[in-house]
Structure prediction request, 598 residues.
Amino acid sequence: MPKTQQLEDFVTQVRRDILRQVHKVNSGHPGGSLGCTEFFVALYQEIMDRKDGFDMDGIGEDLFFLSNGHISPVFYSVLARSGYFPVEELNTFRLIDSRLQGHPTTHEGLPGVRIASGSLGQGMSVAIGAAQAKKLNNDNHIVYSLHGDGELQEGQNWEAIMYASAKKVDNLISTIDLNGQQIDGSTDDVLPMGSIKGKFEAFGWDVLEIKEGNNITAVIEGLKEAKSKTGKGKPVCVLLHTVMGNGVDFMMHTHAWHGKAPNDEQLAIGLEQNPETLGDY
Amino acid sequence: MKKYIDTGKKDTRSGFGAGLEVLGKTNENVVALCADLIGSLKMDAFIANNPERFFQVGIAEANMMGIAAGLTIGGKIPFTGTFANFSTGRVYDQIRQSIAYSGKNVKICASHAGLTLGEDGATHQILEDIGLMKMLPGMTVINTCDYNQTKAATIAIADHEGPVYLRFGRPKVANFTAEDQKFEIGKAVQLQEGNDVTIVATGHLVWEALRAAETLNENGITADVINIHTIKPLDEEAILNSVKKTGCVVTAEEHNFLGGLGESVSRVLVKNLPVPQEFIATNDTFGESGTPEQLMEKYGLNAAAIVNAVEKVIKRK
Prediction:
C-alpha cells in the first residue's frame, strides 16, 4: 500500500476515535480535533524524531506541546496509535479515575504529555523553555507546538512571540491552527485579529503557510519546509489553514461543534463518512 | 534566655542573591530567569558567573513562568526572580496550570513581599501571596527571616524536587541566625524556650518576636518562640508540642490574617488542641506608602504589638 494511503487511513481512524470518544461521554471538543487530524498524524508519523518509550525530559528527541488543550481527543488518539499507551484506554476519555482527562495533563502520568494545557495561551512559553533547555543540553532536536487562532487573543502569546525572536529560539516550530472559528462565532466576529502572518513577521519570526491543512501530503511537505527553516536564527511559525470539523460534513465550516458531542444518529453518520481502517478500540 | 545578636543589618534579598551565586558554582542544572529586576533581586553575581544559564525575560512575568516550566523539561532547575506581587497574583494561572498542576520543578523566588517594600505603596505590597501559594496542591511555601536563613533556604530548595515559593523582602533587617545553619524544609526552628505562651513567627516578624520575648521576660512572662520558615508543609508537631506546654499562641506574619500562617496554625489547633490564639497580621486591608518602620508600626506588625497580643491571649487561657 502506498505510504500516502496508509497515512490517510490513519487519519480516518483518528477521526473515528475522536467522534467515539466525545460521543461516549457526551462532552469534549470534536471540531478543532477533526480539523487538526492531518497535522497530528503528519507530526507523529512522519515529521518528529521520536525515541521509543517516554521520559519527561525528552533529551535526544523532538518534543511537541499542545497549547490549545481542548482538542485532547485528537492528541489522545494519535498518542495511543503512535504507541504511547494502549489504544483501548481511549475508552476512558473524561471518565472518573482516567489518565485521559478532559484537558491533557501530566498529573495522572499519561505518557506523551509533558505539560498540562487547557487554560489558553500558556503553551508557547513552555515550548520556548523546553527549546532553550535543548540548547543548553546541546541537544540538536526541534520543539513543536500547536495553538488555536482564537487562542492568540490571550496576551501571554505575544510576550512569548516577542521573546522567541529576540532570543533567537530557532529550534522552535509553532503552528497556528487557522480555522477562523472560536466558541462564540468566527474569529472575525468575536475579535478580528487582522493579519496573523503580518503580526508574526513583524515580531521577527520566519512564517510559512500551509494552505491545505487538511491534505496530509500538503501538511507533510509544509512541515518539512518548516523544519528546513530551523537553526537559522529565527523561530518558525506555520500558519495551518484548516476546516473545523473536517471529515464530517455537517460539522464543517461552523463553530457549532467546537465543544459539542454528536448524538447517536449523528455519530452513525460521522462514522459512515469515516470507515474503520486500523481497527476500532 | 538565649541571646540573639544582630550581626549587622542586611536585606533578605541579598541572602537570595548570595545563595543563587553559590548554586551557580555547585549545581550546573540551576538556571535563573528575571523579569527586568536583576538589581532588585540581587542576581548580578549569578549572571556574571553563569551568563549562559541566565534568561532575561523582560517585563513579561506570565511568559517567564511558562518558560521556567519548559526549562524543567530537559532537567534544568529554574529560579525565577521578581517582586512577590508579580511572582504570584499577576501570574496565578500560569503557576497553577503550567507549574503546580504540571508538577514542574520551578523555584519561584519573590522579593519585596509585604508592607516593608515601603514607599512604592499598595500596588506593590502584596499581603495575599502566602495564601495564594499555599492553596496550590504540591506547592512548598517558605518565608525566610533574615539574610543567613534566606541564603541557606535558596541553596536548600535546589535539592527539593517540586515547585517552591520562596518569599523574602526588601529592607535591611537584623541578621541573627547562624551563618552555617542547615536549612530543613518543613522543620520549625525553636528560638526561645518558655512556659506561658507560644509565639509562632515567620519572615521579618521573627526578629520582632525575639524582641517581644525579651520584653515579656522582663515582665515575668516566658515565651516559646518558634520560627516557622516553612508555612507549607507546616511543622505541626513542633507547634502542638509547644502549645501543649503553654496553652496559648500568638502567630506573627507580614501578611493578611486571611490565608496566612495564622490560619494554618489555627487549623492545626482546632483539629488537635484548641487553645486561644491571637493574630499579628494585617487585617484584611491593602497597604500604603511609608517607611517600612512606619508601616509596621501603623499596621501593628512589630514587637510592641506582639507583646500586647501575648498579654491578651494569656488572659484568655
Remarks:
- Chain A has a mean pLDDT of 97.
- The radius of gyration of chain A is 18 Å.
